[in-house]
Amino acid sequence: AQLVESGGGLVQPGGSLRLSCAASGFSFSGYGMNWYRQAPGKEREVVAYVSGGGSSYYADSVKGRFTVSGDSLKNMVYLQMNSLKPEDTGVYYCNARGKWGQGTQVTVSS
After folding, report:
1. DSSP string covering 42-83, please?
2. Of 2, 3, 5, 16, nearest to 91 (Cα)?
3. Neighbours of 81 (CB within 10 A)
4. Quick check: 101 and 92 in contact, CB under 8 A?
5. How many angstroms separate the CA atoms of 29 and 104, rounded?
6. C-alpha dist (Å) from residue 92 to 10, 30, 37, 53, 95
7. What is the Cα 55 distance to its own chain's centre?
8. Which of 41, 71, 77, 108 could form a disulfide with 84 if both were Cys (CB 3.0 to 4.6 A apart)?
9. Contact status, residue 47 vs residue 92, Cβ threshold 8 Å
10. Residue 46 to residue 100: CA distance in whole angstroms
11. Residue 39 to residue 32: CA distance in whole angstroms
């Protein structure tokens, strides 16, 4: 099983980014997928989760701004991030079946 994130970058406050997580070696629809982030000097925290059936969970800090979705045919999971804030800065990881991707850096700064 392997997970590969992409889509990070530098964005101004109020901007948007769409992260992607490509899963291989297993079908995420059977397990669901978590998105975590780790800010500098802080512990890794869960940001969002999507189940194979499409139900979702969001941390309070991102509720109303982030949307998680999955495409079972492509075996991809996405994290649409809108109204980004400087405190959203960090490395974002997808996680499932105990596996982690390499992470993608998101920096929100003017």
Report:
1. S--EEEEEE-TTS-EEE-TTTTTTEEEEEETTTTEEEEEE-S
2. 5
3. 27
4. no
5. 22
6. 13, 22, 4, 23, 10
7. 15
8. 108
9. yes
10. 13
11. 24
pLDDT, tens digit, 9 for 90 and up, residues 43-53: 999 999 999 88
Name the amino acid, one letter, at 104: T
Amino acid at 55: S
Q: Residue 95: helix, strand or coil by DSSP?
A: strand
The closest of 69, 74, 72, 36 to 50, measured between CA atoms, is 69
d(CA 48, CA 33) in angstroms, rounded, equals 8
Give 50-84 pLDDT, tens digit per residue. 998 889 999 999 999 999 999 999 999 999 999 99
